[in-house]
What does this fold into?
Amino acid sequence: MDALDGNAIAGLLVDVFGDEMTAATGVCASCGASGPVAELEVYLQAPGTVVRCRSCSAVLMVLVTARGVTCVDLQGLAKLAR
Amino acid sequence: MTQPYRAPCDLIVEPLGPGTVSLAPGPRAYENGRVSPISRGFRGRGRRPDADPGRIPPGQYATDDFPVLSAGPTPHTPLEQWSFTIRGAVDEPVSWSWDEFRRLPSETVTRDIHCVTKWSKLDTTWTGVSIDTLLEDVETSAEYVLAFCDGGYTTNLPLEDVTGGGAWVAYEYDGEPLEPEHGGPARLLVPHLYFWKSAKWVRGLELREDDEPGFWETYGYHDYGDPWKEQRYAGD
Amino acid sequence: MERAALRGRLTWQLASVVELVDETPRVRSLVLDPPEWRGHLAGQHVDVRLTAEDGYQAQRSYSIASAPEDGYLVLTVERLADGEVSPYLVDELRPGDELELRGPVGGYFVWEASDGGPLLLIAGGSGVVPFRAMLRHRAAAGSSVPARLLYSSRSLDEVIYRDELESLGADVRLTLTREQPPGWTGYGRRIDEELLAEVAWPPEQCPLVFVCGPTTFVEVAANALVSLGHEPGRIKTERFGATGGR
It folds into this structure.
């Protein structure tokens, strides 16, 4: 299955961060690659949304919506800044 | 029309320690408690409104499709590099090459499957090796297993749920070799639990004394995942 | 509008369907009138949500095809053979229906006249949709930024906005990858490094590049541009597929 990119979760990221995040810069904690959230690999068709590093495929963010609340785990990111 | 939205540039998150979690209200019915109106004529793709309701767990919808779900890129491990391993709380790990694995006695079973994303698919037919066969000569005090996979995916299950004829490592679907997008060359099949437990691209089972959460379980999904009790999320 | 009303809130609303425009046999534009619209930037999306009678819901994200200056919100949707939402939007939706949506969203894959250029747009199939918004915005804003669109389509019949694109004042280059009409003088092959070297401004002119299309198309085009010497930071990409939308 082809991955999409961070543009596809612009709305979901507003839900979680309360703000536009696709233009933010993420830094991969595994390989150090840095780039806009919009350019990250995104897997939508899953029990949650999985965002991976385009360089090393490491999991950067996982978003799960349970009972109307979305939790985001950012442990794969060394930095997220805008 | 009004002016375009301009976000203020004031958010910096650094550094992000392990397990940083933020909570936010998720997509919900909109303002004032109203629920989404019905989209005239929309039924959803491949849906089976005529399915026997007694076979559809609560909150599920029957489909004729076989949606492809994936948390990452599809691995393409060459069969000559493939192996299946039982490790962890065992005296000696046991491993089978693809050829050895295919020579093990196989079973063909027809079961209903239920994905936590709310689709259920009835009467799916699989061929593979029963976990009972794989554990035949294994002595263990373990009570849990953690299935591990190409691509790094894991999922946890009680040992008793994958034994006693309840689970298989399947390599054929509907009489054909299992396609990579559906987990081929081989996936776990544990049809009585939500389908995220039926790990795609499975490469082995780690026998454990404790219940170590797998990938989705770490992110809030239920450790057991019984669709008939609607155990989707931790605490259900 | 006050900032408090803008930040952190993305609410669903019901937009009425004003008109439906057939663009190609597989593509339709939805002209919508959302009750509360705070404006948008060219390149942004909306999330669309459908609800079945039994409560089942499906949600996708679609690029906005209209310029910020246009009077209505327009989405252009391609019917995907294995799609769930797009066949409904293309075949089932009628004028007078209401469509649940929220937005606009996205702040990366956007272009405003003040961002400058030269503006190089590279579209695969319905990846042309956000570029219609950008080129309409460019025209409405009276921008003199040079703009060039390289648009890859399977055949001439499948070219979306065919007549309109010619009238927007941009340099439009079509490549038809499967079928070319008799006497076709445009390109007739898939986008690759050689074709991009011909069409793109040289890297020294630092064009601002947007690439939109199916995942594989975007990878090929973006990698070729980088290999031609274009600055990766000036190449913005957007991928779509059956689960994402458009």
Observations:
- The beta strands of chain A are 4-5, 25-28, 34-36, 41-43, 49-52, 59-66, 69-73, 77-81.
- The first strand of chain A starts at residue 4 and ends at 5.
